[in-house]
Amino acid sequence: MMNTKTTTIAVYAGLISVIIGSATFALSWNLYDILGGPMPGTKVLLFPGSLTLIYVWHPLFTEEISFWPKFALQMFGQFFVVTAVIMLFVGLAKKLFRITQKQ
C-alpha cells in the first residue's frame, strides 16, 4: 500500500483542515454583509471545530471569552478531530489491506 506512517498522514490532514478552516472562516467573516449571512458550506467545513467548541470547550469556559481565544480553540479542535479520524481510517485501511494480501 504505502510506506508512510499513519501519524504523518493524519497530522498533514489535520494541518490542511486548519488551513482550509481558517480561510473559510476568514472569507465568511469578511463576506457576511455582502452575502447577507454566512458563506455557504462554512458549517460543513468547520464542523469538527464546532463540535469541540460546543461539547468540549463550552462546558469548561463561559461564552464570554474574546474572539481570538475562541478562534484558537476552534482551530485546535479542528486539528484534533480531523487528525484522530484520519488516523483511525488510515490505520483501518492498512489493516484491511494486510488482511487481503495474506489471502
From TrEMBL:
Keywords: Membrane, Transmembrane, Transmembrane helix. The keyword Transmembrane applies. The chain crosses the membrane at residues 12-32, 44-61, 73-93. It comes from the Bacteria. The keyword Membrane applies. This is Uncharacterized protein. It comes from Idiomarina abyssalis. The lineage of its organism: Bacteria, Pseudomonadati, Pseudomonadota, Gammaproteobacteria, Alteromonadales.
